[in-house]
């Protein structure tokens, strides 16, 4: 049986892409190098900012660049493509329709995962960029699954954006107290789980060794979905 190759349309952002690759390696059941997943990675950091374009703050449309990158991954031999960026999924259908190989949707996978792992799930909180929130990316998928979706208020959302852009993307120290305050505020509003709907927030989870089951890491879910799509097994202890 031919070994599947994953194409990673990355650089959005660069640190999240590298962390995503590390996740895949660490979560794959493998005894030797050859048991690991083959990856073709385009860590294209120069892709225009997704949130700025979605909000009308920039005229630089990232779609054409991402479509071109997806085609290059396909031509290089990828069997399917993943994008380790939630905001970029605003363009998901257009990218998918431009190529002849499948794509895994991080938003669909994460909401589905939450439904499988949270008993009687009714309400989810989502921490994400303004672009993801205002384009209703998670809200629409949650609605499809009959789940209520709550995002932070204006002040809270400004705090989310500070953590993502001024701290993680900028390589600065993260205000972890502000992060936990955001999570607890959503929990107080009835959220049974809180999705880290921006892959920069996955970096926060890693750096502060956060292991709460009510915090669902979209990047981790995508890594698991990628491993399974390649016909590999998850390493013992990473299944949940």
Describe the largest sheet: 4 strands, parallel
Assembly state (oligomeric): single chain
What is the CA-CA span between the terminal residues?
28 Å
State the name of the first-level CATH class of the largest domain: Alpha Beta
Overall structural class, as computed from helix and strand content, comes to alpha/beta
Low-confidence stretches: none
Question: What is the total tally of β strands?
Answer: 8
Rg (C-alpha, Å):
17 Å
Helix content: 40-55%
Summed up, the domain count is 2
Inertia-based shape: globular
Mean residue pLDDT: 96
Count of helix runs: 11
Sheet with most strands: strand arrangement: 2-1-3-4
Strand content: 5-15%
CATH topology of the largest domain: Rossmann fold
* SSE arrangement, N to C: EHEHHEHEHEHHEHHEHEH
Which CATH architecture of the largest domain?
3-Layer(aba) Sandwich
Description:
This protein is α/β, with parallel strands linked by helices. It folds into two domains: 5-105 and 222-229, Rossmann fold, CATH 3.40.50.1860; 107-217, Rossmann fold. Helix content is 46%, strand content 13%. The protein has helices at 14-27, 50-54, 63-75, 92-96, 106-117, 130-134, 137-144, 154-168, 176-188, 199-207, 218-229; strands at 5-10, 38-43, 80-82, 103-104, 123-127, 148-150, 193-196, 215-217. It has a four-stranded parallel β-sheet, sandwiched between helices. Strand 3 (80-82), helix 4 (92-96) and strand 4 form a beta-alpha-beta unit. Helix 1 packs across helix 11 (218-229) and helix 5 crosses helix 11. The longest helix is centred in the C-terminal third of the chain and has 15 residues, at 154-168. The protein is globular and about 50 Å long. The two termini are 28 Å apart. 41% of the residues are buried.
């Amino acid at each position: 049986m031919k070994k599947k190759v994953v194409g990673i349309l990355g650089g959005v952002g660069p640190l999240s892409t590298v962390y995503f690759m590390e996740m895949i390696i660490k979560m794959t059941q493998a005894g030797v190098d050859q048991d690991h997943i083959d990856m073709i990675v385009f860590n294209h950091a120069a892709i225009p900012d997704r949130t700025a374009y979605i909000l009308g703050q920039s005229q630089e449309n990232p779609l054409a660049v991402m479509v071109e990158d997806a085609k290059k991954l396909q031509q290089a031999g990828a069997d399917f493509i993943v994008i380790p960026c939630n905001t970029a999924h605003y363009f998901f259908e257009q990218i998918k329709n431009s190529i002849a190989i499948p794509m895994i949707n991080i938003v669909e996978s994460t909401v589905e995962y939450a439904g499988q792992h949270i008993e009687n799930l009714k309400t989810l909180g989502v921490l994400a960029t303004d672009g993801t929130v205002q384009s209703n990316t998670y809200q629409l998928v949650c609605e499809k699954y009959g789940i209520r979706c709550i995002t932070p208020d204006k002040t809270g959302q400004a705090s989310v954006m500070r953590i993502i852009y001024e701290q993680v993307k900028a390589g600065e120290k993260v205000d972890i107290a502000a992060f936990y305050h955001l999570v607890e505020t959503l929990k107080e509003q009835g959220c049974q789980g809180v999705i880290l709907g921006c892959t920069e927030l996955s970096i926060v989870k890693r750096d502060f060794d956060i292991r709460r089951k009510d915090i669902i890491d979209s990047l981790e879910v995508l890594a698991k979905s990628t491993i399974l799509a390649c016909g590999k097994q998850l390493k013992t202890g990473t299944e949940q």
